[in-house]
Amino acid sequence: MSKKEEVEEVVQSVTPILVAAEREVLEEGKEKKKVVEDGFELDDWTISEFISENDFDMIDMLSDALEQVSNQLDEKQREFLVKSTEWTTKTRDSLKNQTKKLEDQRSRIQELLVKQYHKIDKRMNRDAKTVQLRDKISFVVGVGNACVAPALALRYPNSIPLYYSVQLVVLVILRYVIYRSRRWHYFIFDICYFVNCMTMLFLWVFPHSSILFLATFCMTNGPVAWAIITWRNSLVFHSLDKVTSVFIHIFPPLVTYCIRWMPELQKDVYCENQSFVTSYRNTRFPALGDIEGDITFRQVMMYSTTAYVIWQSLYYLFIMVGRKDKVESGLRLTSYSWLLDDTHGKKGFIQNTAFMFGAKWKAEMFMFLQLVYNIVTSIPTFFIYKSFYLHTGFLMAMFAVSVWNGANYYIEVFSRRYISEIENIKAEDLKKTK
Questions:
Q1: Which of 126-140, 159-173, 332-346 has the highest mean pLDDT?
Q2: How far is CA 282 from CA 106, 138, 262, 290, in A?
Q3: Which of 62, 190, 338, 401 is 20 to 30 A from 78 via CA?
Q4: What is the pLDDT of residue 168?
Q5: Where in the chain are the domains?
Q6: Is the separation of the CB atoms in 233 and 243 below 8 Å?
Q7: Residue 428's pLDDT is what?
């Protein structure tokens, strides 16, 4: 093989390596800056430049060429790195400015929303006559339920589901409208409303589902009923908000009570009619006919815990994750944000326990507390389901607690606050007329 052929072979073997190296650098530069500088062109080299009679001279020339290309590659990399750093800095500054503008815009929008909510709330309470009319209607509804519901339950327990359903639709719609104006409407995603939905589904969609009935029975007579104590529900007749709160906590257990004990409630002391009433109940609610004997403790725990886990999962995804920014910014108020807020008073058991492992885990600790509460309050439902008299006494006790809380409110709060509120509204009306 001649010298020329040897040189051509060496150059041909080196050239692809150099071309690949140059292409890699150029492509890296394109990704970072989209600008490509003039590179070292291998095509400018000629075979004659590497031809020499001395093999060592040829090695030196090739070594120099490789070193030259390596130096140029290093230089290009440094240039691209510098330009990439400059571009990254400019981009970062631009993103910061844009982010600041968007945050300012969001703050202004939030302020406008808050003002609009206050405006709507003020419009709904701007007139003394409107406030008085609303409270009179609430008084009629509250007293009516306190008188009519027990009479219906004792004489016509089969009418309680319809009586409950009509009121629930009306009261929840009114509550949503009012809470929406005050930015409280995320409260409607709490577990008590979820259980009310379970009750409605059983009554009108799945009356044949024994699993849904047992889960509803355990949840209504467990966490929902006991919430009258934990949330201090007060039977304040003139307050639509408080009347609604008592309704959504006491009526679902009353509905399941009437369905479970319908034969006992309509028992005739003069003739045997329980078989007829039982047949009617099982026809209207086939789930009761499918339940053989008494429920087991395992069923109570399994059904109540499953219902809680379903609600908690939905609540976590929709509220605690999906609406996290709105809740943390104060634009929306939820039960867990209100309970964990230490700005409205002294820290209680819930706050101290929720912050046991720091603020980072407060949401998880709060969910754990709710799970424990759900389990503990579901345990008595096992015994309540078995005993008519125990169930009756339990509902009477829960109702008595709401009445006691209402009495405390009237004596300690209402006598001062309500009169002051009406006088302030009348004073504002007088100012407008002048």
A1: 159-173
A2: 56, 36, 10, 8
A3: 62
A4: 97
A5: 3-105, 134-428
A6: no
A7: 78
Helix (H) / strand (E) element for 19: namely helix 3-33
Please tell me the predicted confidence (pLDDT) of residue 15.
Answer: 59
- Residues 218 and 378 sit within 8 Å (Cβ to Cβ): yes
Q: Which helix (H) or strand (E) holds 170?
A: helix 160-182
> Which tokens go with 92?
């970062």
3-state secondary structure at position 235: coil
Q: Which amino acid is at 299?
A: Q
CA angle 335, 338, 341 (to 5 degrees): 145
Mean pLDDT of 397-402: 96
Closest alpha carbon to 230 in 339, 150, 109, 329: 339
Which H or E run includes 70? helix 55-124
Which helix (H) or strand (E) element contains residue 229?
helix 225-230
Q: Do residues 253 and 380 touch, judged by C-beta distance below 8 A? A: no
Q: Give pTM, 2 decimals.
A: 0.68
Contact 380, 303 (CB under 8 A): no
Residue among 382, 391, 386, 403 at smallest CA distance from 157: 391
End-to-end CA distance of the chain: 117
Tokens of 400: 């008595």
Residue 401 has pLDDT above 80, yes or no: yes
> For residue 271, what pLDDT is reported?
80
CB 247 within 8 A of CB 195: no
∠ CA 374-379-382, rounded to 5°: 130
Instruction: Give the three-state DSSP class for 60.
Output: helix
| pLDDT given at position 299 | 94
CA 284 to chain centre: 35
pLDDT score for 157 = 95
Q: Is 62 exposed, middle or buried (0-12, 13-18, 19+ CB in 10 A)?
A: middle
DSSP state of 410: I
218 vs 342, residue with greater confidence: 218
Residue 216 near residue 127, CB atoms below 8 Å: no
